[in-house]
Amino acid sequence: MQKQDDKRPRILLGVSGGIAAYKSPDLVRRLVERGADVQVVMTRGACEFVSPLTFQAVSGRPVRDDIWDAEAEDAMGHIALARWADLLVVAPATAHAIGALANGLAGDLLGTVYLATAAPTWIAPAMNHAMWAHEAVQTNVRTLEQRGVRILGPAVGDQACGEHGPGRMLEPADIAAAVFEAPTTLVSQALKGVRVLVTAGPTREPIDPVRYVTNRSSGKMGYALAHAARQAGADVTLVSGPVALGVPPGVSHVSVETAEEMYSAVHERIDAADLFIGCAAVSDYRPASQSPQKIKRKAEEMSLALVRSKDTLASVAKLAGGPFTVGFAAETDNVVDHARQKLENKGVDMMAANRVGPDCGFDQETNALTVLWRGGEQTLEQAPKSVLARRLIALIAERFRHARDRNQSTNANAPA
Ligand code: PMT
């Protein structure tokens, strides 16, 4: 295992069984040259093309190619391997490997590691151009993309079969360059050891035993943030309203229903948080009273008295010595102006202005944000929520470190 103080980016390279596997040792060499610690995982098919010994020689690490290898599992189990990685790159990714990853098949070590890792995953497809064009492959690629997997290539050119078209694996130099160029790729240490509390989803405010007031939040943005924060090395707790989503791996989960429950769940845990991200769409109002029985249909008209619920985000931002706070402002009009007002009124450190509309905001797969703080702002272009979450976490990590460094230097200069 790597020493604690070794800060080299840790790249898990999955090699699947295509002719392009002969280029993968060169990719390992280039990653190692640029300072990465590379662990290779090979599929059975890959071993038919290149000897594991070749990869061992260039990576300096024994190759893992068998989930049933008791000795290798003993040294570092497949789950430890998945946790070790800052980034999982599969190059080449054959049509079969892409299908297995898209469908969550854990029949070999690569499939298992993909399911268990919290690290970002990139794949470099390589196959015959007709296979690449096939609807089955394209559907699998789209599934992975929607899940936040980055697809590198493929390149267009002459193929091993003698034909020409899209399907060549990107050159190792281009893959290595992409790994080190993307600022958010190797951010896994950016929040290492930071304790992050995230809220997500809607709240439900009961009217009677069968009816409630709620909103259209699906929880997707908040869950993607919790996942990205975990990928960035944070200890993450997710306080969530009712949603139909799986909890991201490695994230602690607290389930709540109402705004009051969310307030309490957050305040019970806030002393143990360095960073608070309020992404939940908390009901601003709740019914003034809850009928113990189902309300009967009698009157032609009825009105519902509502009272304001406690503001979790504003109350966290007010805590003396409290965490760095990030809020969201979902708006339909004058989005950035309203969000800047909320930044000031709630006294938070950062506010993500979230336009609500087609392909943005509540219950959509994609989103776009303008992130505001005192003295600055940054636009994060429209992208799948998983991708946007990684970009936002990278930006939050930067501002969080900036604030922490400033506090430390202020404290150091304060009179004893
Ligand atoms: O869940 P998805 O379908 O993926 O959609 C994501 C989202 C659009 C819900 C999310 O990105 C978002 O914008 N969340 C904030 C929703 C909102 O309308 O917030 P607000 O403007 O009402 O509140 C501003 C901030 O105060 C938010 O951080 C909110 O969590 C917080 N708040 C509000 C009221 C309250 N009683 N307590 C709070 O903590």
Q: How would you describe this protein?
A:
The structure is a single chain. The protein is an alpha/beta fold. The protein has two domains: 179 residues, Rossmann fold (3-Layer(aba) Sandwich), CATH 3.40.50.1950; 219 residues, CoaB-like (Rossmann fold, 3-Layer(aba) Sandwich). 36% of the residues lie in helices and 24% in strands. It is built from 15 helices and 19 strands. An eight-stranded mixed beta sheet has the order 12-11-8-13-16-17-18-19, sandwiched between helices. The chain has a five-stranded parallel beta sheet with strand order 2-1-3-4-5, sandwiched between helices. Helix 1 runs parallel beside helix 10 and helix 5 crosses helix 7. The protein is globular, with a radius of gyration of 24 Å. The two termini are 43 Å apart. The N terminus is likely disordered. The protein binds ligand PMT. The site of ligand PMT has 28 residues, from helix 11, helix 13 and strand 16.
